[in-house]
Amino acid sequence: MNVLLIGSGGREHAMAWKIAQSSLLDSLWVVPGNPGMVRHGRIAEVDINDHKALRRFLLEKSIRIVVVGPEGPLVEGLHDRIADDPQLAGQVTVIGPRKEAAQLEGSKDFAKEFMFRHNIPTAAHRTFVKGQLQDAVEHLERMSSPYVIKADGLAAGKGVVITSDRKEATAVIKGMLDGSSFGAAGERVVIEQFLNGVELSAFLITDGEAFKMLPAAKDYKRLGDGDSGPNTGGMGAVSPVPFADKEFMQKVHDRIAAPTIRGLRKDGIAYSGFLFMGLMNVNGEPYVIEYNVRMGDPETEAVLPRLRSDLLDLFEGIATGTLSERHVDVDDRTAVTIVMASEGYPGKVVTGRAIGGLELVREAYVFHAGTAEKDGQLVTAGGRVLAVTAFGKDLEQAIASAYRSASLIDFEGKVMRTDIGHDLVRMRTPKGAQQQA
Ligand code: AMP
Ligand code: GLY
């Protein structure tokens, strides 16, 4: 089977690494790819936005599966373009949903209405549009703080403001509705009830009929230790999540995953690919914070190393509508991922700095995110630079191993959290466990 993988981050490197292990693979192409991904596949010199060129490439290389890593191309309708092209239909399967379904991520209002319609637990909300600032302000007056305010559209993870200050909340809503803070993405604003709990990321893969749960992970979104500093794309991940035990994951399966797939079918919305359920555990009950129509980054870098099954076998299950017959087999060990970022991240970053020490890493996987090769030297080329994943027989050992490996890699201005997973170790102490229960 020939595969084209779209993307260039740590998530896509982990996918390329995993796909390359498949006995079903003939050749793997990546676009735009990164220096880590080229160890597993060849760079496809094709502009995916130029449909004629993309069609020619897919036909010439007899590509059977197109895997879309990030949400952008899905929200823009890449799946539709391929599936609706008479020359490609039936030949090429896209792992990732059509544009209509991608609104689960692309529009918070669409996602909230969907959950409401299908009785999927989520925070109560109301949506306001241009001209409704006064209504939104009156709504805030009736709510208790903190206020959760979200721009409806894609805002690169920055469109959510949580504040207890009503004046600030009002200013944020005003800025969104008049288009000054998030452009078109903020012209609809969702105001939500605040959910107090611990977050985790759950994942499934589906052909639209059957679905299989993948391992869950915890992501560390803030830049600094102790969850301080600004929000980022994610600074680390742990899988499995100790508090997401069998009982909790059964609730996720029954109350969230199954009704979501059923709801999509009921609404006549075709869905194939990954679904990321961003959840809040509120006293042992799962609530959906958000859907994403892709895998998480850096969660993928902790989840895929734990997947024993052949990922291409699952993709083939999607292509042939036989996912129900495939198996997801998972390694019980804990995987911990540490992200190394550039100086200045998540703001403006300095790039082009030489990266050293990769060859010293023996006990971990190193996934490339923002790297480039310059005159034979690996250099930094983005915000998040590398993701290091290590296994351990328990959480403590996985953390220690991941940090041992991360400390071997160096570049000027390297930024990384030193406490990935520590909260989960604390939670498992008898006192913490009681608090959790
Ligand atoms: P989102 O972009 O919807 O994932 O929101 C970004 C972050 O805001 C989430 O990861 C949560 O930490 C937080 N958040 C979003 N919605 C809520 C909510 N209703 N209650 C508490 N925290 C929330
Ligand atoms: N790590 C969170 C995300 O991928 O959205």
Please outline what is shown here.
The protein contains 14 helices and 21 strands. It has 437 residues and is an alpha+beta fold.
What is the terminal separation in angstroms?
A: 47 Å
Strand segment tally: 21
Which stretches of 5+ consecutive residues score pLDDT under 50?
432-437
Please indicate the percent range of residues in DSSP E strands (runs of 2 or more): 25-35%
CATH topology of the domain at 2-97: Rossmann fold
Q: Considering DSSP H and I runs of 4 or more, what fraction of the residues is helical?
A: 25-40%
Number of helices: 14
What is the level 1 CATH name of the domain at 2-97?
Alpha Beta
SS class? alpha+beta
Largest sheet: 8 strands, antiparallel
Rough shape? globular
Bound molecules: adenosine monophosphate, glycine
Cross-sheet strand order for the largest sheet: 16-15-10-11-14-17-21-18
Rg over CA atoms, rounded to whole Å, is 21 Å
The overall average pLDDT, rounded, is 94
CATH architecture of the domain at 2-97: 3-Layer(aba) Sandwich
